[in-house]
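Per your request, structure below.
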């Protein structure tokens, strides 16, 4: 009976973690689909061999990278400042 109880607790602990794994897996699948679609659309537009479209695509990737990384950097700096403040 003790071994059965141990197995039950073990499987309950696994069951608690499964939704986290499934959520991460589904987010990864959606992200992969979105990136694949965007690269497909960008590639198709670049295959027109138009220099203007190429420059705009590169500029769009650069601006997107800057916006995402800048906001992540700002959030991490804010988190560091919040940790440095004394708690009264």
């Amino acid at each position: 009976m003790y071994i059965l109880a141990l197995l039950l607790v073990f499987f309950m602990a696994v069951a608690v973690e499964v939704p986290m794994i499934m959520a991460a897996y589904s987010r990864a699948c959606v992200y992969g689909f979105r990136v694949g679609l965007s690269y497909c659309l960008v590639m198709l537009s670049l295959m027109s061999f138009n220099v203007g479209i190429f420059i705009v695509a590169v500029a769009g990737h650069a601006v997107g990278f800057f916006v995402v990384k800048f906001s992540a950097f700002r959030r991490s700096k804010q988190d560091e400042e919040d940790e440095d403040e004394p708690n009264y």
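The helical segments are 2-46, 51-84.

Regards,
D.
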